[in-house]
Amino acid sequence: MLNQEFVAKIEALLGKDRCSFSPEDLVAYSYDANPEKRAQGEGVVSPKDKEEVAAILKLAYEYEVPVTPRGGGSGYTGGCVPVGGGIVMAMDRFNKILEIDADNYLVIVEPGVVTKDLQAAVDKIGLMYPPDPASTAFSTIGGNIAENAGGIRAVKYGVTKHYVMGLEVVLPNGDIVKTGSKCIKDVAGYNLTELFVGSEGTLGVITKAVVKVVPKPEARRTMTATFSSLEKAAEAVKAIYATGVRPATMEFLDRISVEAVEKAISFGAKPEEGALLLIEVDGAELALTPDVEKIEGACKKCGVITFRKAETYEEREALWAARRALSFALTEIATEWEDDDVSVPIARIPQMIRKLDEIAERHDIIIANFGHYGDGNIHIGMTTGKSGRPFPMVAKEEVVQAVVELEGRIAAEHGIGCVKVENLHWNIDGPTMAMMRRFKNLFDPKGLLNPGKVIPSED
């Protein structure tokens, strides 16, 4: 139970309208986009400026109350789930774009701004904020930074960390610090900015960010290529890169995914097509036709079955329809899936898929794979189908083992959170883990800020 003196001070600080201890709100803030991982806090607070964030953290530090920062709640690994109890700090009032500096290609933004709103604001003046996670329409910039979000454009443009130039952060003891600057070149002191990016709110609460934007590409071209197997698709990816073309997007669907989408929307897949690549290039209009020709030539050399090019916006949307329909299509196979998000070196994606096929056969389960081929990010869906059999959790352990054997990482763009925290030892050795603990203890000696995330238990 929360200390009543603490509650009284929080209510005096924020007003009762921005503090809630109701059962309904505690339930509403007890999960993220993965509803299976739930934990209720004991209160929800909604600060409106950095001074209030600092005051809340100082009180929490004094009364030893855990604090879990929360953005849009769109994560999949429980990063904003209050597994340690205490209070949830909702950052939705930090929703302003403070400055768009087109001359210096940067934006100063509060963490509660929805990613799509930032993209739309800069798009109006011919600029682009490249990070583009699937949750763009409802995820927030602060959450993207905390999770180092990726997305479909990462193959060319990189992920969130490549666009964060500086941060304003409130530490667990209430100190307000600033990292980085507006300068492209800045070696004044340690690079603390990247220390906070991807830290999942365990080291501090972000209250402001300086993010980089780029000129919006003049045009884009979209195409799909299908192959008999993922191995053939892998050959094509290698051949495409050899041409010197760097696609903005390189998505893939495996055989199960292709078959599921074909059943759902009849997009024209043939029975012999065992893999689909969705490729997009962007840049100057005059440069794109040669790029598309090079990609088509590379695919033909590798046994492409069908190569489709979009010449209009409507045709582009039609090609993207297969990728967008996937989540719906997979529900026809099963309504319950065990999902994972991993990465391996891109040349080892075919090996990883073969290992997954072996796991599926060994445990008599269905495994569907799709994701971002250009950066080695595989999204894995596992199910027993409509059989009603319980899912063999040992299969998930074997997936992790296969990832590690191929020098991959157990989390690619969805973070560690509380879902994967106890598996982190698969990727992080003892001395490195000890160093991470020292960092956490330095910033948060009482372990109150987003406990149970990123750093596993000592044993």
- Structure class: alpha+beta
CA-atom Rg in angstroms: 23 Å
Q: What CATH architecture label of the largest domain applies?
A: 2-Layer Sandwich
Principal-axis shape equals globular
Q: What are its keywords?
A:
Alpha-Beta Plaits; globular; 4 domains; 20% strand; 34% helix; Uridine Diphospho-n-acetylenolpyruvylglucosamine Reductase, domain 2; five-stranded antiparallel beta sheet; 459 residues; seven-stranded antiparallel beta sheet; alpha+beta; Uridine Diphospho-n-acetylenolpyruvylglucosamine Reductase, domain 3; 15 helices
Task: Give a concise summary.
The protein is an alpha+beta fold and 459 residues long.
Protein model, in words:
The protein is of the alpha+beta class and 459 residues long. The chain contains 15 helices and 18 strands. It has helices spanning 4-14, 23-28, 50-63, 115-123, 141-147, 154-157, 193-196, 230-242, 255-265, 285-301, 313-324, 326-330, 349-363, 394-405, 430-443; strands spanning 19-20, 43-45, 67-70, 87-90, 97-101, 106-109, 127-128, 164-170, 176-180, 205-212, 214-215, 219-227, 249-254, 275-283, 306-309, 338-343, 366-372, 377-383.
